[in-house]
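Chain A, query sequence.
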Amino acid sequence: MRRRGEKVVKGKIKWHRASQVRKIKITMSVIAVILCISVAAGALLVWIQLKQPSKVPYNSTSLNSTEIENDILPEYDNSFNLAVVNASNKINPDFKVQLEDYEGVKVDTRIIPALNKMMNDAASEGYKLKLISGYISIEEQDKLFSQEVQKLISSGSTQVRAENQAQTTIGKGGYNEKQTGMAVEFTSEKTAENGDFSSTDEYRWLQKNCVNYGFVLRYPETKISVTGRNFNPRYFRYVGKDNAVKMRSFSMCLEEYATYIRQQTP
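Chain A, predicted structure.
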């Protein structure tokens, strides 16, 4: 014969077990839904990667105008970024320039996104930069060098002295960074008023902000003995953002920094 209290206890136990079973079923259902969503998301990501592979090398068609406006700028390795061309280092014959017109000046197409953003950002803040020089072929460079030498000779310099001086301002063909397409020169409306770009607000803006776009002042006044070139406030060179920021923090010019990077590389 069963007691009344015993029925109550057993009923509560059965109800408790049924409740636990329901909770387990609900938990398993939630886990199953989450797994299905995860699998679907993973499949979608794989599909996107196959359709839109990342880190496509930049050329005139690899980045559209919308991507550039959204600040998606391409990055390159240091075989491009840190190519050093000066009086002691002739441009590597294997270096291939990819030319494109920008603002009426030829430059390497790979620097255009950063150059374009830098000039647009400057303009949006009221600083009107004008690009006046970019790529120059070896043949054109030699002509400019010869003209400068003849000008100095006509002013009383000897042939040797004229050539040495011309090398510090113009440079021979193949020994000038204009042949890389990564070196550019700027001016501004205010420059025409006094002829000195270094005294303009545009120059001060460039000095402060250029590294954020991967550019550096190529021939600083304090590095003449290293670069072999006179100070030129108009002349800026693309080296990539990471390199530009580090060069500033280390107070290095391109020659010093390129040597430093080579020493750090096993």
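The radius of gyration is 32 Å. The first helix runs from residue 4 to 51.
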